[in-house]
Amino acid sequence: MLTTESRDHLAGGDLVMRGAAYRQWLAGRTVAVVGLARSGIAAARLVARLGGRVLASDSAPLEAWSAEARALAREGHAIWAGGHPAAAFSGVDLVVVSPGVPFDLAALAPVRARGVEVIGELELAWRVMDSDVIAITGTNGKTTTTALTGEILRGQMRPVLVGGNIGNPLSAQALDCPPDELVVAEASSFQLEATVDFRPRVAAVLNLTPDHLDRHGTFERYVDAKARILANQTTADCVVLNADDAPTAALAGRTRARVVWFSRRRAFDHGVFVRDGWIVAKLNGHTEPLCPTADIPLRGQHNVENVLAAAACALWTGMGADAIRKGIVAFRGVPHRIERVLDGRGVTFYNDSKGTNVASTITALESFSEPVVLIAGGKAKGQDFAPLAAAARGRVRHVVLLGEDRDKVRAALAGLGIGIEEAASMEAAVRAAAAAARPGDVVLLSPGCASFDMFQNFEHRGEVFKAAVRALLQGGTR
User: Fold this and answer.
1) Domain span at residue 193?
2) By CB atoms within 10 Å of each CB, which of 82, 337, 367, 406 scores lowest?
């Protein structure tokens, strides 16, 4: 088995087993994979491709498993449904935990007591591949910034892979990454808390606001999980930090890497910032304009911040200003993040299903000057909804609530003197929002909550919303 005491094993003084050495180590090993959503399935298949034996378990009953998860049994892997019994960890050399599984799961305690290493899927993929990694995290904006960074970097010579929490588990492509490939990875707090040696050459932290407190318990523990992204960096690496966000800026005191700041509000001797309507980089004493802010095709000031961070990541590769500007101008955003859906009878419908926390919904509201009819609600994740009321005041005309914790959202918004109603389904919510909207309004799905009470994930929620909008508008009724 691989224990924390036995990992100083490579010749040349390298204390971290990675690349070919780790691939060789996994061959013939027994690996427990805990949780069989997309990341867990990708991890199990990666281990199997390398010649390892897989023991896979999931808390859901077998009938609730996806077809991809059930296929693991047909392929000869040992599986357990409805929990994680001791047999699922018998004789294992390594445990890989999916992001959706709490890292302090009680079933893992006896395994840890035996000295077996427990890691996450992101760590597994990073160990298997040889590629340099740019890793991007933050409470909000990480999907857009990851996709934008990938778009910009496609203008340079190295091959680029975009993956991670953005919807494409790195384990699914780890064996297909050539050593010279540059990987741009979105990393969540769930993934990062399960890292051990993970060392991105560039780590970007966009912002930090309370989120996933139902899992992490406190904001401080949530920040600690995010800070794992820079825990193993050295002075040869780079960390990109938001100078305008106090909790993020404080991470500068927790890293050995060289800090590159980004800011919408002030200039830096070493950073990327806005000056006189331009994105400007000042690095190593050299100042260079990169792109007019007017050329950014994405809506909202938060997207200016995303562009600043992406540009800082791209500059690490040596890209020039013209190539960076071309990538910025060509980017049209990602699905489910303030995504324009359709116009109908003077009302524009936007899908912001990726708005899974209060701060994200506030950011979405601040992106519009038009009156908003807001569709919100879902699984609250232990959040405080009081700040949403301040952001909604004067911006939101009407609210339609749905989901498990809609009463918590209602309580926070009750004093605004606006219309608030409830809907039993997304289709009903769209109909109600359209009925309340006036010409010139925006109907915005930005739930401020997780989706798992009613939907498979935020993508599923967004697709249901878009389908409901199309059915309503293309049917010719409001």
Assistant:
1) 129-330
2) 82
Instruction: Examine the domain organization and report whether 326 and 343 are in the same domain.
Output: no
The residue annotated as part of the active site, out of 84, 140, 142, 351, is 142
> Which candidate in 140, 165, 306, 357 is catalytic?
165
Residue type, 55: L
* pLDDT > 70 in the chain, percent: 96
* Together in a domain, 258 and 388: no
Q: Is 165 a catalytic residue?
A: yes
Tell me the CATH number at 219.
3.40.1190.10
Specify whether the CB–CB gap between 64 and 58 falls below 8 A: no
Total domains present in the chain? 3
| Residue 212 annotated in active site | yes
Tell me whether residue 303 is one of the annotated catalytic residues.
no
- Given 84, 140, 207, 212, which residue is catalytic? 212
Residues 49 and 167 both lie in one domain: no
CA angle at 30 for the pair 24 and 35, rounded to the nearest 5°: 115
Residues 6+ apart with CB under 8 A from 63: none
Residues 103 and 153 grouped into a single domain: no
Q: pLDDT digit string (tens) for 158-206?
A: 999 999 999 899 999 999 999 999 999 999 999 999 999 999 999 999 9
**pLDDT at 7 exceeding the cut of 80:** no
pTM: 0.86
Q: CB-based burial of residue 175 (10 Å sphere; 0-12 exposed, 13-18 middle, 19+ buried)?
A: middle
